[in-house]
Design a protein that fits this description.
Number of helices of chain A: 2
Radius of gyration of chain A: 16 Å
Strand order of the largest sheet of chain A: 2-1-3
Order of helices and strands of chain B: EHEEHEHEEEEHEEEH
Largest interface: A-B, 11 and 20 residues
CATH class of chain B: Alpha Beta
Order of helices and strands of chain A: EHEHE
Oligomer: heterodimer
Largest sheet of chain A: 3 strands, antiparallel
CATH topology of chain A: Mth169, Chain: A
Radius of gyration of chain B: 16 Å
Number of strands of chain A: 3
Structural class of chain B: alpha/beta
Largest sheet of chain B: 9 strands, mixed
Helix content of chain A: 25-40%
Shape of chain B: globular
Amino acid sequence: MRAQVIVRLKNGVLDPQGEAVMASLGSLGFEGVNGVRIAKLIEIDLDASDYDLAKQNVMEMADKLLANPVIESFEVEVLK
Amino acid sequence: MTVAVITFPGSNCDRDCVTVMNNVVGVAACRVWHGDTSLPAETRAVILPGGFSYGDYLRAGAMARLSPIMSAVHSFAQNGGPVLGICNGFQILCEVGLLPGALLPNRSGRFVCRHVRLKVGSAPKGLLAAFKPGEELTLPIAHGEGNYFADEATLGALEDEDKIAFTYIDADESGNAMVNGSRRSIAGLVGGPTHNVVGLMPHPERRSEERLGGIDGLPLMQALVGGGLS
């Protein structure tokens, strides 16, 4: 199975990369860009057969290492 | 006694710390590899040095937190042993939970390498006992991720409990540091059961000798082996 973890900065946490990208989009002439937030997508190849167990396992991985709960939130999707 | 300076893969200030402890403070110091599982028996203090442990992969300090030596460092700190985290060491102390909050990328998006003016907190004790309340000092910084962040409740508690060790003097109208955006201009924190854990983004070891421009950082390096701790 494969799992995808998206790690995002929480709302209210400044994202300097996103701000810089937004400024660059503006300088390229793109109009109407109100905000850019950059997130991480982490793909995990899992040796697992049970969907629920796999999801629980990856949730724990995200909680313990992949995301820092002080500044980040995460979403886990397990792909069958 | 010895001061254990932990060397992670990517640490680059470990030798500076050993040199200052050996040649300026005048105590034995040694580098301890992050893969070791115990500190030398005679360890009197621990330094987590600056650098880019594990290349700052995932988040600065996130991987170093899981190095084998860190459970020994954690116990040492919980038992009142003096621990100083400098720059990447501060990031690691936050990741491992010995200090609250996290260090985000600088608000400017740029790596900043220069001297900054700092102010000591209002009630320095423990490892900070050598400083006077509100004392001002100059130290060098060199970081890309020094933007201290914690939620409002945590920030309030840090202030109420006098756990803000150092603040940047130059702040914007919201109270955030001009140099990197740190909430409440926080440059360093103190924690641990006896105020024995200090983490800060500036580099005290780079300003501990007159011939290198000043000795503003020396009291903190000396405090690791001094009598300030109960």
